[in-house]
Amino acid sequence: MPIRLPEDEPWFGNEVSSTVTLLRVALRQGPHTPPQPEPWQGPQMPMRKRRGTSSINFVDMIDNLRGKSGQGYYVEMAVGTPPQKLNILVDTGSSNFAVGAASHPFLRRYYHRSLSTSYRDLAARVYVPYTQGRWEGELGTDMVSVPHGPSISLRANIAAITESDRFFINGSNWEGILGLAYAEIARPDENLEPFFDSLVRQSSVPNLFSLQLCGAGFTQNYSLGSATVGGSMIIGGIDPSLYVGDVWYTPIRREWYYEVIIVRIEVNGQDLNMDCKEYNYDKSIVDSGTTNLRLPRKVFQAAVTAIEAASSTEQFPSGFWLGEQLVCWQAGTTPWHIFPVISLYLMSENHNQSFRISILPQQYLRPVEGVASAQEDCYKFAVSQSSTGTVMGAVIMEGFYVVFDRQHKRIGFAVSTCHVHDEFRTASVEGPFHGLELEDCAYNIPQTDESTLMTIAYIMAGICALFMLPLCLMVCQWRFSRCLRSLGAGDFADDLSLLK
C-alpha cells in the first residue's frame, strides 16, 4: 500500500510531502572497495588552513540541538518575562524569528504574549509565503535567551504567528523558526533586524556561529528521548572537539542567504562535465532548514544518471530517484558500498583555488522510520530537483562541522566527529585544487535597463488596449464562472518563496 511520509522538505520553497511506495531489495554480493575519486588538478601546494580557537567555554552549547529525521533541527529558547520555553527550528535559509502564538493542532505549546511583562507590540503584521505553506503574524519585541547558549538575554524582534497553512508539522516538536540569514530577505522588509544581528549588537558575542548536525544513523552516549537526530549550535565561536582535521573556508558571495560558489561536482570522482554556472543557477546556498541536497534541473538529471550508473549492480525504479519510492533492505544489510561518493568543489578564499567536500550515501540516503517492520531499514533518496538554485541542505551539512563566519564573510567546512560512515569510506574535506577565474562560475541575474522596461510596458499596454480588450469583454462572463469552479475544486499551490 502507498505510504505517506512525514513532511521532509524545507519549511519554505519545496514540496513538503509526497506519496511513496516501498520497494524491498534483496541484498546481492558485491565488491566492498568502491572506485576511488581521481584528483582534479591537484592537490597542489598546501593552502593555509585554519583551526578554530576561542577562549569562550562552549560546553553548555554542545548537544543543544534535537529533531526528527527529515523534520529539521531545533534549539530550546526562552521568550518573554517570565521565560516561556519553546523549541525553535534552526534555519540558515531565512531571516525571521517567528513563534506560534495561537493554538494549533500540531503545537503542544505556544507563546502567550499576554503573560509576558516585557512584550512590546509593534502594531504591524507580517506575512511569509513559501512555495508550499505560509504563516502570518503580528510583529513585536520581547526578551529572548538561549538556555543552552550564551548567558545573555536580549530584546529581539518576534513575529507572533496567529495564522498558518502547511507550516507546522505534526509530531516535529518545534513551535517556531529561528531565521539565521541576513536582513535582506527578512519580512516585511530588510529594516527588520534579524535575531543574530540583535544578539551581536547587544552583546559581546562574536559575529559567527557554527553547526554540527548529526544525522539519524549516529548514536551518541546520551539518550535523545523522542528525537531521532541531534547536534550542536555553537553561538559565537568554534568548538574544536566537534570536528577533525582542518576548517576550509569559502567566501559568502552575497549577504542575503548564505550564498556560495560551486565550481565542480563529481560522482565517484567522475566530473559531471557541465558549465560551472549551471551548478549555481540561479544561486547556491547553505541551508539547515532544508532536508535534501537540491540541484537545478539539468544538474539533477546529470547527477542522477551518474549515481544510477555507479550503483548499477542493483536495479531501482525511476520513482526511487525521484523521491517517490522508498527502498528497504533487511536490517543491517544495506549495501552502502554500491552507492557512490558525491563531491562538491567550493571556491576558496583564494579565488583561483577550490576545495572538495565529499559526502557518503549514508548522508544522501535518508532513513525513514515508521514505514516498515523493525527487521527492515528503509531509505529515501535525498537528492532532489530545484527551481531556485542549489540548496546544500541537512544531508550535506550532516557530514561536516559548518562554520558561519559572518564577521569575515565566509563559511567553513571540516569533517564532523558525528557523521555516519563505515569502515571503508568517510566524509572528507580536501584541497587546494587550482583553477582559473573560479568566481566566474557564479550566476549573475541579467539586468535590464529600467527605462527600457518602462518603454516595453507602455507598448504592451497599448497593444492590449487596442486589440485585446474587445476579446476580453466577449469571454469575460464565460470564464468568470469557470474560474470560480476551478478555484473551489483544486488544491492551491503557492509559487512564492523568500526570494526577493
Compute the average pLDDT: 83
Strands of the widest sheet, in order across it, are: 4-5-10-6-9-8
Q: Give the DSSP E fraction (strand runs of 2 or more residues).
A: 25-35%
Helix percentage: 10-25%
Outline type: globular
Number of helices: 7
**Which spans have pLDDT < 50 for at least 5 consecutive residues?**
1-19, 26-55, 475-500
The total strand number stands at: 27
Helix/strand-derived category reads alpha+beta
* Main sheet characteristics: 6 strands, mixed, barrel
| Distance between the ends | 41 Å
The Rg value, from CA coordinates, equals: 24 Å
Domain Peptidase A1: 73-414
Membrane topology: Single-pass type I membrane protein
Family: Belongs to the peptidase A1 family.
Enzyme class: hydrolase
Summary keywords:
single chain, five-stranded mixed sheet, six-stranded mixed beta barrel, 500 residues, alpha+beta, 27 strands
Report what the structure shows.
- This protein has helices spanning 195-202, 276-279, 297-310, 318-321, 361-364, 394-397, 450-489; strands at 3-4, 19-24, 65-67, 73-79, 84-91, 97-100, 120-129, 134-145, 153-165, 176-179, 209-214, 229-235, 243-251, 262-267, 270-271, 284-286, 293-296, 325-330, 342-347, 353-359, 365-367, 376-381, 383-386, 390-392, 400-405, 410-416, 428-434.
- The protein has 500 residues and is of the alpha+beta class.
- Mean pLDDT is 83; it is low at 1-19, 26-55 and 475-500.
- Residues 73-414 form the Peptidase A1 domain.
